[in-house]
Amino acid sequence: MNVSHTDAGKKGTTERRSFLTWLSSTALAGSAVISALANFVFLKPRATYGAPSRFSIGRPDQFPSGARIAIETRRICIAREGNQVAAISTTCTHLGCIVGVADTGFACPCHGSRYDQDGNVTGGPAPKALPWYQVKLAPNGDLEVDTNVEIKAGTYYNL
Ligand code: FES
After folding, report:
1. CB within 8 A of 133, min separation 6: which ones?
2. What local confidence, expressed as pLDDT, does residue 49 receive?
3. 124 pocket-lining for ligand 1 (C-beta < 6 Å)
């Protein structure tokens, strides 16, 4: 079989052309995929909002009368007296350590601040009392605390 120079040249041109077509199609498809991924990443919210300020702490009967139960993950202490319930911050007002529930009220392990049962400072470097937060009964029967809403110390929620 005899192949002329011009036939070989045409075949080479055709191969080059189909290779370039394949290359540009692949590049186009690749850039479309990358663009779609970039758009997806852009549309997906990247903000983190931290822990919610309003959250459920469970049923009222989980907090027996006279109990002072610290919920360390939420940095609050739930105090219940009869049918009254309150949420007191357990974040030390000195430098933010978590205070522990003590017989006399609250005690900070970091620099020794002491608070009474209502969160008033009784000793140590703490500059102010522990805040009290709003407590409500949610429609589903759970107690709900809102750490964005500070209330007057000594204000209990009536169940
Ligand atoms: S952080 Fe509580 S006394 Fe300093």
Report:
1. 76, 87, 88, 89, 145, 146, 147, 149, 150, 151
2. 73
3. yes
Question: Do 130 and 115 meet the contact criterion of CB atoms below 8 Å apart?
Answer: yes
Q: For residue 100, which amino acid is it?
A: G
Residue 41 to residues 37, 38, 45, 94, 96: CA-CA distances in angstroms? 6, 5, 8, 41, 36
Residue to mutate (ligand 1; options 90, 94, 99, 122; most atoms within 8 A of CB): 94
Instruction: Note the pLDDT of residue 108.
Output: 97
What's the token pair of residue 97?
A: 């350590």
Query: Contact 145/131 with Cβ under 8 angstroms?
Result: no
Give the chain's residues under pLDDT 70. Answer: 1-9, 45, 48
55 contacts: CB under 8 Å, gap ≥ 6: 74, 144, 145
Q: How close is the Cα of 92 to the center of ligand 1, in Å?
A: 6
The atom of ligand 1 lying closest to the CA of 99 is: 2
Alpha helix (H) ranges present in 44-144? none
